[in-house]
């Protein structure tokens, strides 16, 4: 597979302020599960808290399939959540509360719940799309995007080894964008993380069979959560992501993702369907995200 060239966005100044953007950024997150937003968490926090931006979230599943990872959650909630018959009944409401608790930290404004069944782990995107009744999801997403007038839509990177639900959420989000008038389309970015500077990250061009997922070669934007700030530069943005992940106490796997001594770097692939017109806007956004710091 051809390796993509990575565009590293330079951190040019710690003096950047919200005034460097001539607009109030608006972002829609489209996710499959109630803890997937942790992937975008540091960029989202900076957007809402330091750039006065607006971020909404569209969640496709009800999260009930997370019962497999709920062993420790049993002790938090006093329920045997890791038993399928208990978890599937109780986790949808529990995980919405956890999502909103993490969202409060990130500054998420509004939530759109689709409540499609989180049926079981699979790599099969086609099976997932069939079970979710694709047309109803795409239609609702299109309306949300049309009314929201977002600048960006953050999606999960649909690489082959990723959960089929993650891949399907990206496919549906891109299909919704394609149905908007070209003059009113948000910029689509597909996101994942790499673990520190030594990790080359995921290689990706497109999800086979889904050409709308194709990314533009060499256009991957980053925010390094290891960027330091505060007294003696003793803090960094992994703290924000750890706070958000810790709210998902019914789960365990996202916490393990955060457990990394080299820290996390968020990566955002620029989707080819955007065309080249949105590149300058995207580049400026991430230059500002990388530069702006808390007072």
The tally of helices reads 9
Major sheet attributes: 7 strands, mixed
Rg computed from alpha carbons, rounded to a whole number of angstroms: 18 Å
Q: What do we call the CATH homologous superfamily?
A: LmbE-like
Quaternary state of the chains: single chain
CATH topology: Rossmann fold
How big a fraction of the residues is strand?
15-25%
SS-derived structural category: alpha/beta
Largest beta sheet: what is the strand line-up?
3-2-1-4-5-9-6
CATH C-level label: Alpha Beta
Percent of residues in helices comes to: 25-40%
Overall outline = globular
Description:
The chain is α/β, with parallel strands linked by helices and 295 residues long. Helix content is 35%, strand content 19%. It has one domain: Rossmann fold, CATH 3.40.50.10320. The protein is built from nine helices and nine strands. The strands form two sheets. Strands 3-2-1-4-5-9-6 form a seven-stranded mixed β-sheet, with helices on both faces. A two-stranded antiparallel ribbon has the order 7-8. The radius of gyration is 18 Å and the shape is globular.
